[in-house]
Hints:
The structure is a homotrimer of 359-residue chains.
Chain A: E1 3-4, H1 5-12, E2 15-18, E3 23-24, E4 26-28, E5 37-41, H2 47-52, E6 57-60, E7 73-76, H3 80-91, E8 100-101, E9 106-107, E10 112-113, E11 118-119, E12 124-125, E13 130-131, E14 136-137, E15 142-143, E16 148-149, E17 154-155, E18 160-161, E19 166-167, E20 172-173, E21 178-181, E22 186-187, H4 193-200, E23 213-214, E24 221-223, E25 228-229, E26 234-236, E27 243-245, E28 250-251, E29 256-257, E30 262-263, E31 268-269, E32 274-275, E33 280-281, E34 286-287, E35 292-293, E36 298-299, E37 304-305, E38 310-311, E39 320-322, E40 327-328, H5 329-340, H6 342-358
Parallel strand pairs in A: 4-5, 5-6, 6-7, 8-11, 9-12, 10-13, 11-14, 12-15, 13-16, 14-17, 15-18, 16-19, 17-20, 18-21, 19-24, 20-25, 21-26, 24-27, 25-28, 26-29, 27-30, 28-31, 29-32, 30-33, 31-34, 32-35, 33-36, 34-37, 35-38, 37-39
Antiparallel strand pairs in A: 1-3, 2-7, 22-23, 39-40
Amino acid sequence: MPHTIRDLAAALGAEAAGNLDLIIARAAEPQAAGPQDLALATSPAYAEGLAKGQARAALLWPGADWQGLGLEAAIFAPRSRLAMAGLSRMLDAGPEIAQGVHALTDIHPTAVIGEGASIAAFVVIGRGVTIGPRARIASHVSVSEGATIGCDALLMQGVKIGSHVTIGDRFIGQPGCVIGGDGFSFVTPEKSGVEEIRATLGQREEIREQAWTRIHSLGAVTLGDDVEVGANATIDKGTIRDTIIGRGTKIDNLVHLGHNVQVGEDCLICGQVGVAGSTRIGNRVVLAGQCGVSDNIFVGDDVIAGGSTKIFTNVPAGRVILGNPAVKMETQVEINKALRRLPRLAATVAELQKTVSKL
Amino acid sequence: MPHTIRDLAAALGAEAAGNLDLIIARAAEPQAAGPQDLALATSPAYAEGLAKGQARAALLWPGADWQGLGLEAAIFAPRSRLAMAGLSRMLDAGPEIAQGVHALTDIHPTAVIGEGASIAAFVVIGRGVTIGPRARIASHVSVSEGATIGCDALLMQGVKIGSHVTIGDRFIGQPGCVIGGDGFSFVTPEKSGVEEIRATLGQREEIREQAWTRIHSLGAVTLGDDVEVGANATIDKGTIRDTIIGRGTKIDNLVHLGHNVQVGEDCLICGQVGVAGSTRIGNRVVLAGQCGVSDNIFVGDDVIAGGSTKIFTNVPAGRVILGNPAVKMETQVEINKALRRLPRLAATVAELQKTVSKL
Amino acid sequence: MPHTIRDLAAALGAEAAGNLDLIIARAAEPQAAGPQDLALATSPAYAEGLAKGQARAALLWPGADWQGLGLEAAIFAPRSRLAMAGLSRMLDAGPEIAQGVHALTDIHPTAVIGEGASIAAFVVIGRGVTIGPRARIASHVSVSEGATIGCDALLMQGVKIGSHVTIGDRFIGQPGCVIGGDGFSFVTPEKSGVEEIRATLGQREEIREQAWTRIHSLGAVTLGDDVEVGANATIDKGTIRDTIIGRGTKIDNLVHLGHNVQVGEDCLICGQVGVAGSTRIGNRVVLAGQCGVSDNIFVGDDVIAGGSTKIFTNVPAGRVILGNPAVKMETQVEINKALRRLPRLAATVAELQKTVSKL
């Protein structure tokens, strides 16, 4: 997707200098940049790399001496990651999916596909499905009966959308994600050991044989606008009502969201996070990689949880947490320091005991 | 799947009252229930919701005044989750897969498919496969050569059954699960660093370059009757004998069970649990979400492990455990309390040291 | 794949005795071995099992009295797991994929497929793809535009190779793995809460609403020779340059490797490990199951991390680590011992305080 420096700068709302008609085909790291690449040199640390590469133009830090760096043109980025977002969108050609519907597909005659859709080979679309305009649907995708997807959807290879799932506009599904598997919900005829120990925190009276009866998922999943779901992530259907993910929330690879979970708007749910059934997550919550959240609890707005934080109880809005079990991040940092010295502390106490007993 | 109140109550073995001929099409939360829905109001807390909704019938707590709640009919549930299991089964229409075999499939002529099967588009079934009566196989499923699946199987979209896998009756495979990938088993020509530190708990004599040679998986996987496997979960083949999952065991999304693992009957293995190679898990074991179990150990019958418990050593039958590394749940609860006070404890000990040294 | 004892021993470089012309079809555990199986009895502990089974030949420990064990032939294995690697390779028939290209495929006319390839039903291969000789590609695989795969590749069911991914020789992709999904990279217009707490370790000045703008992945993924990737594992594309996995590295099921990650050569990345964006992992690193590695850090050569180790900071070469957060394994073992006694330690300190205050 080639663009002039002028067009790129205008799209980014950024200042530019030099030959604004220079045409850029790709972005590249400074030392690897060729003559048609825009080198990404967003801090002075990259100046050396620029000298090694062959870039004629670069994305530079504000105030950089682009001529001194041997460039013909430059764009200046006050907030470089934000500029990267705009640049990468413009330079991304997107997946190659031919316009129209491939012959080797299985699309139910009642399905309504919006204008301008591209549907690749071996796609299956069920009865009564509605898909908005300009959808791009890669190979091996299935969209089951009664599902609805908004406009400008991008469903990558092997995405599986379950029956009666509702998805907003501009959805992106990475390869292999599953939206709308059945919830994991089972019950025993009598009170199970799990129910018992939840009440007693670990005590069991009598251990009985128990087999599991399935609770079917009659609900589905509802995703708001601008949601993205990562590769091989899974979001289960609700039992009665839908599992709900709010507008603008981004979900990474291999995340698991259980039945009846509610996630608010503009959250970031990073790789391999798991959220158990019926838990509610507020707006703008960030769960770093491998976090776990127990079932039936509430995580307030604007909570940020560091990597591998395990959340067993409600978390008030705005809290920054870390650890297993989760505590305030600053507390966990203190605990971690003390933990490293714990064997020494134990030895000190043993010494003290001896000394004191002599006294 | 509409039913009368009479039929629903009979199927649940529950008492009912009022107009038993009322027809119910769906279940709903009380406040969202329409006139053809059965409102699920299994405790007095839901009475307010009932008043807001339009339900004419409800599943109620024992002794509820259904007429006072403005209902025409009611079913009474002494154990509400168990009633939900029965209700949800009756009201679940199940996935829409047309009877018979879709034209766009690749089914080996030697494969034997039982009576009444429904096989969707783009399904692949290999040489010598046997699938029992009434199987429902959704799109993009593959069942490889020599595999055997019992009666009433439900294989959702993109399920992958490996060669020579054996599966019992009433199997449910959620979308994208993989039963029978190869085990992760590699060996170095000389003793590897991993073997060394296992013996020494962390000490290494000399670090040598080492490359990994693959041990192929010659075994397969055997699943008992009534097993369910979650979306994108993976169960690996055994090296020589089969990896084995017992009757009635339920496995959640994104679970990983390594080669040669043996899991007993009626277990619950929750989301994102991982069990490393050659470990044995007893009967009725519950591993909550994100638990991890080391290789070559044994977890006894009726063990319950709380969320994110990491199990490195054998666990005796009946124990309730929590934490990383796993200890008795009640011990972990005490440790967690003490941990939060650990920085203070360290300060106290430092004070004591000063005081005692003065004495 | 039947072989004589002579051929098996020669291929393993091992000594053999007895009837070297005996033909072996499979390997088996001693007690389960039939007359055409090679019983795997690599230590004296298996002698009893041998007596129960019907094996006529066995893989035995050095110096074993094969005749006394009632066998007709034996192979002697000084390092039994290494012998298993050779044996299992010879006895593995491999997946059944018919030679040539199945009719129900969608292969772009510009794609170049090497000689001797086997391509199963419902495979999709994009524009400009190059696949080396003797590739075996199972059903439902997709290889997107511009990807390159070396010789002797084995792509199991539903493997998804993203656009412009480069893969070396002898690649093995287990079912459902995704190489080349988009990176999880988002930015807010102003500094986000995540950026703030990284600097302050938990303090936030003011909480603002924030929405996420996507940074597209313009890079791809490069895998060296002899890489294996596990079932449903995911490796994301880089933002500008490629995510890189070195020669000989083996990756297990459900592993997540983020954008821009670099993994060295001959590493073992076990089940459910997650590595966040832009982190570099050295050569011969072993990460046991469920390890997590933060973004933008460096893990040195020959590091070994025990199960569920969570790595938040750089790790020097050769270190053996354990725990959350990661410390030296021997330190963690000490910490774990002290942790179990922590409630008692707290009580002891309280006692001491009383005693000392009396003094």
